[in-house]
Structure prediction request, 454 residues.
Amino acid sequence: MERKREHWGNKLGFILAAAGSAVGLGNIWKFPYITGENGGAAFIFIYLICILVIGLPVLIAEILLGRNSQRGPISTFKHLAKKHRNLWVTVGGLFFITGLVILSYYNVIAGWSMGYIVESIAGKISSFQSSADAGVHFNSLVSNPGWIISWQLLFVVLGGFVVYFGVRNGIEKIAKFLMPIFFIILLFLVLWGVSLEGADKGLTFLLKPDWSTVSFKTVLMALGHAFFTLSVGMGVLLTYGSYLKKDENIFFSGIMIALLDTFIALLAGLAIFTSVFAMGFDPAGGPGLVFNVLPAVFSQMPGGNVFSTLFFILLSIAALTSTISILEMLVSTLMDEFKMKRHSSVVLLSGSIFILGIPSALSFGEFGSFRIFGLNWFDMMDYLSANVLLPLGGMLVAIFIGWYISKQEIIGELFHGVRDTQFNRKTSNVWYFLVKFIAPVLILLVFLSAIGVL
Ligand code: PHE
Prediction:
């Protein structure tokens, strides 16, 4: 039977949609605060190595798997696994669960971000004397179930709305529209941050490593974040890859996506740290950094409301283009595996994600005293997905490509759309080696050391 699958309208559409997936809360909300907590430049250095040696090779592997099978994750494994088929189908199921876990708490932060656009426009973000003041305001909002759940719901509906229209008319259109706006706002905020008096202290923080805080846990954080920020390890890029035509150059696209993502994280770090340091605040603000510290920073400067509005629009766009990629992975799984229609899948999944997200949404109020390993529900979901599920998923993708499919088939797939030159052959061999041997071993070592076995 001939299978019909939707395809991207063009190459730019794919790259922008995939970059939109990669660039998300990870870059703007999370990267700055974990950098702040883990020694600044030292952390950035380890993170960049993780991106280059593990993240990027596995990212290319994922896109390649999807393009080869033209199916969503579970169906891809079913279709391509010659051995241990059930095991691999379970891995596809793991991706599905990871998607649900991430979306459940991701939409909550995205909801805060949208709520903060309105707070900014209403002029409520301009009168804080200190980050403690801003923190009190933040806490009063996030411990209010009505506020938090309505914003969360609105965001879930927004994401569902885009995915409802499909790959070309929903995801690709919105990425082409929003990503340029995103770049412009970000560049504006960077230029403004760098121009502040005292901005150089922020630059020093980003460039001068402090190795004293680095441990194996730091390396796990950097590795986990490399996966999280690239959207790798749960079949999202596999799904986006499955909408690619055979003549696209996966290598080039993969490198572009990783470069854009890294560049944007660094720019966001630059915008945030220059202004945080210029205004004399502490960079290690934790998950509340952009919600506690930045509003206080905005309050200290003329036109703070405008900057604050722009910043939270930036954050919301980033979150939306990532949310839709995860939702699309889930939707494509239901469509391919259970022959469900796109529209009913979107409705079913959005409803489930909303409900699954409620414990995370309430983690900052009454429900906050509920702890697992000392973490509240929200933090637990974040830790579990970024530091356990995604690296594990990434390792499995690497193992699948390296050990379950013939090298000939993989390289053959790669060379659709890539010119057959000697340089490209060599590069593809290096890539294959990284995916087959280096990535799985390094990920395993980091896991073992983080749990104290090594
Ligand atoms: N990459 C996104 C971010 O940086 C998060 C994400 C993770 C999206 C996994 C898709 C899959 O925020």
The longest strand covers residues 371-372.
